[in-house]
């Protein structure tokens, strides 16, 4: 404990879910005076105040469990995200659903390339606008909201090379 040398504060509470086991979490939950936890980094005074009540220990345990579950689901979520981006790009590259089926049957399937300028994010696939509406004047609420939507579609790649 107290491993981090914090320069900006004296009261902090850092939890590393990668170092926590289920046994560590159960011990933390039912034994508040336990001081040897390798997954918590905090000054002793902060550690004592945080572990005072069962409710605060329960919140810590629950937060670590949720983080561990999310870490287990990282790869499946990434696969779903890749699919949700790839599928609309596949449809667009082949001219729509029915042309996609036709291209599959004739062997002329076009595979979208992630590095190409036509490959867009999921948000880019749902909103194909590339220019703002000409009827909206600069400085209005509508203009700012449309500009925000267009800016959210930009994909930040290395060195701010805006290809999307």
TrEMBL record:
Keyword DNA-binding (UniProt): no
InterPro entries in the record: OBL-like (IPR044819)
Keyword annotations of the record: Membrane, Transmembrane, Transmembrane helix
A single GO BP: lipid metabolic process
Coiled-coil region list: none
Keyword Transmembrane: yes
A molecular-function term among this protein's GO annotations: triacylglycerol lipase activity
Transmembrane segments: 54-73
Name of the protein described by the UniProt record: Triacylglycerol lipase OBL1-like
Organism: Raphanus sativus
